[in-house]
Q: What sequence folds into this?
């Protein structure tokens, strides 16, 4: 096995990057070599705190500006968890510096910005990928095999999903996700990215023909120019008659349900984004049968649980570790994979259309 590693720089000291710091340590093919914020002391404190739990040697360097990190020669790839409103600038700069880019979601303010970001990465010959962790779980290919067998679910007819969390008051009045310049899509961007991606995945990445979106509630920080969605629902329809719906909210407690209905049965899971804490991930299928015999009317449940051995978080085989390991493998191979920017752009396009619809009295937007 090669000792070569993908050398990571983290652009900001965002909280989510702590989880991914540990994921990079667990990959076996990656190492954090630098962290940047607009304050070098903050970068150094952040490094020291993470080193205490998941140490790298040599100790990552602390930078007091993003430009300094991009100029570093010992950085191959940049992880960018900056607010969405800032991502375009720094993705394009990272690509121009020859750095591969892992970008948090939603990737851009809109599809036009993301198109520019992807074009910059393509021009520089660097990999672009969004940080959708569940795409790298071993559960997903097992689910795919069940959907494709034609017997358990049959022909897909309907896809539904929900992803939400109940934000505390300080979140609703102070978090960056409540500022329209930083996160204009609010809960739709922060959460709906996962739902739209799940629907795309279920449909083998075929784009829907039309969408409708509805803003159920919205608000913003006192300094936000405009309110942002805090509760949102969407409906997608494909040309073959398949439909999907999803719901996102900062106002209802943790839900991450996904359900795929077919003409023979259904597939369902309660933790499609962040697996419940365990050393296994799972999903269920059911082929219920309604049996009538004289006066006896019986609904028979034929429930089956499908189990995959994979730790839910913080382990060498967890989905976040697989995300960074797979990205590192691409970097070390010297090749890029067009699938990842293409599916990110499809996801962004769907969310843009949902928001456009919601802002126009739920009018149908055709894709």
A:
């Amino acid at each position: 096995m090669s000792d070569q590693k993908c050398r990571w720089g983290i652009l900001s000291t965002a909280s989510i990057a702590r989880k991914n710091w540990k994921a990079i340590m667990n990959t076996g093919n990656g190492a954090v070599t630098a962290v940047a914020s607009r304050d070098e002391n903050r970068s150094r404190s952040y490094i020291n705190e993470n080193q205490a739990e998941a140490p790298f040697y040599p100790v990552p360097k602390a930078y007091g500006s993003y430009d300094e990190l991009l100029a570093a020669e010992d950085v191959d790839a940049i992880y960018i968890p900056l607010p969405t409103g800032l991502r375009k600038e720094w993705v394009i700069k990272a690509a121009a510096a020859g750095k591969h880019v892992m970008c948090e979601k939603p990737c851009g303010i809109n599809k036009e910005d993301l198109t520019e970001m992807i074009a910059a990465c393509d021009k520089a010959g660097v990999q672009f990928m969004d940080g959708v962790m569940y795409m790298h779980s071993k559960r997903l290919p097992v689910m795919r095999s069940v959907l494709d067998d034609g017997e358990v679910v049959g022909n897909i007819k309907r896809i539904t999903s929900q992803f939400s969390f109940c934000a505390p008051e300080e979140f609703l009045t102070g978090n960056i996700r409540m500022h329209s310049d930083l996160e204009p899509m609010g809960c739709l961007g922060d959460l709906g990215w996962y739902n739209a991606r799940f629907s795309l995945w279920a449909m083998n990445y075929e784009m829907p023909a039309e969408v409708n979106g509805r803003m159920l509630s919205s608000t913003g920080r006192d300094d936000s120019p405009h309110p942002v969605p805090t509760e949102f629902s969407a409906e997608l329809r494909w040309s073959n008659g398949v439909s999907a719906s999803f719901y996102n909210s900062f106002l209802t407690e943790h839900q991450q349900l996904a359900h795929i209905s077919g003409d023979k049965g259904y597939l369902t899971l309660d933790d499609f984004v962040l697996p419940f804490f365990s050393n296994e991930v799972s999903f269920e299928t059911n082929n219920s049968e309604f049996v009538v015999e004289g006066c006896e009317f019986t609904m028979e449940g034929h429930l089956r649980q499908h189990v995959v051995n994979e730790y839910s978080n913080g382990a060498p085989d967890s989905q976040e570790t697989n995300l960074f390991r797979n990205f590192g493998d691409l970097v070390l191979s010297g090749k890029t994979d067009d699938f990842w920017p293409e599916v990110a752009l499809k996801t962004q396009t769907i969310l843009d259309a949902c928001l456009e619809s919601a802002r126009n009295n739920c009018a149908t937007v055709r894709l």
